């Protein structure tokens, strides 16, 4: 209850101006609001932090948009608001998979949509057929989006959810340790992610998703990049970099137009 009171106080008594303003280039302004995992199988924090940096760098490399990134500590009042916005986008999305969500996400989704909504097969199939169609957020959450959009001086917010991650290693061992040649042949990394571009004025959401599976047998580029003794960690970062590249390309090609 105390946390909720603090969050509401931040909203109703005004949110402090953002520390830095965008240059006036006329390009769409995007805030990379949160890169998080609301799935049951989560990557270690260092990989998530690295993923945030990779997405931000790839966005900034495009002159079609201006970008900035939130630098908030987890548990901070404002980070909790961003978390709520992110979960609201996930809960209303066409491809939300309740069975892959963590407890926090499951509880939020059930509270705003109802548990039966995700278990009705007819509703689920109809929802999945609408993939790619923009949708909107809960009215209360749209208000928060608008307030934070004005604070940060942005047109759009971008959220990314790594909803599932699987790291498999034939001979086991310590994560990130130098593997043997036999261990290399048994490596496999799979990452599923989804992302949400939100128009801060309308609350309309564009949803995209990527799924990527890599094994050491089919990823020769890893040897050239990291050497013969590349680690599972190197594989994860390689997959995340590829995912970030696909995300940014889709946002620029389809996302901005869909919710503009």
Task: Please provide a brief summary of the model.
By secondary structure, this protein is α/β, with parallel strands linked by helices.
Explain how this protein is built.
It is a single chain. This protein has 260 residues and is of the alpha/beta class. It contains 10 helices and 6 strands, in the order H-E-H-E-H-H-H-H-E-H-E-H-E-E-H-H. The chain has a 6-stranded mixed beta sheet with strand order 2-1-4-5-6-3, with helices on both faces. The protein starts with a helix and ends with a helix. Residues 1-17 and 171-182 have low confidence and may be disordered.
Runs in which pLDDT lies below 50 for 5 or more consecutive residues are 1-17, 171-182
**Strand order within the widest sheet?**
2-1-4-5-6-3
Calculate the terminal CA-CA distance, rounded to whole Å. 36 Å
Strand portion: 15-25%
C-alpha Rg (nearest Å):
19 Å
Fraction of residues in H or I helices: 40-55%
Morphology: globular
Rounded average pLDDT? 80
The number of distinct helices, counting runs of at least 4 residues, comes to 10
Number of E strands: 6
**What composes the largest sheet?**
6 strands, mixed
Which structural class is indicated by helix and strand composition?
A: alpha/beta
- Give me the strand/helix succession: HEHEHHHHEHEHEEHH
Topology overview:
Elements (H helix, E strand, L loop, with lengths): L1 H11 L16 E8 L8 H16 L5 E4 L7 H16 L10 H11 L1 H5 L1 H9 L5 E2 L2 H14 L3 E13 L12 H5 L2 E12 L4 E12 L5 H6 L5 H28 L1
Helix pairs in contact: 1-3, 2-10, 3-4, 3-7
């Amino acid at each position: 209850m105390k946390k909720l009171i603090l969050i509401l106080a931040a909203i109703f008594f005004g949110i402090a101006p953002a520390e830095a303003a965008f240059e006036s280039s006329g390009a769409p302004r995007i805030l990379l609001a949160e890169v998080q995992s609301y799935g049951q199988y989560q990557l270690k924090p260092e990989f998530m932090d690295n993923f945030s940096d990779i997405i931000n760098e790839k966005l900034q490399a495009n002159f079609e948009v201006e970008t900035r990134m939130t630098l908030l500590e987890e548990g901070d009042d404002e980070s909790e608001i961003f978390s709520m916005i992110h979960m609201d986008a996930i809960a209303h999305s066409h491809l939300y998979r309740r069975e892959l969500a963590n407890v926090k996400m499951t509880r939020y989704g059930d509270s705003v949509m109802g548990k039966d909504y995700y278990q009705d097969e007819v509703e689920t199939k109809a929802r999945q057929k609408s993939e790619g169609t923009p949708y909107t957020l809960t009215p209360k959450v749209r208000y928060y989006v608008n307030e934070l959009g004005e604070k940060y001086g942005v047109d759009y917010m971008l959220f990314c959810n790594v909803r599932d991650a699987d790291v498999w290693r034939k001979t086991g061992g310590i994560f990130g340790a130098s593997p043997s040649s036999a261990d290399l042949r048994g490596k496999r990394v799979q990452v599923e992610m989804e992302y949400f571009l939100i128009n801060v004025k309308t609350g309309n959401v564009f949803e995209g998703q990527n799924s990527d599976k890599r094994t050491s047998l089919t990823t020769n580029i890893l040897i050239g990049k990291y050497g013969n003794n590349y680690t599972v960690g190197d594989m994860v970062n390689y997959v995340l970099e590829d995912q970030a590249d696909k995300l940014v390309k889709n946002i620029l090609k389809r996302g901005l137009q869909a919710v503009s």
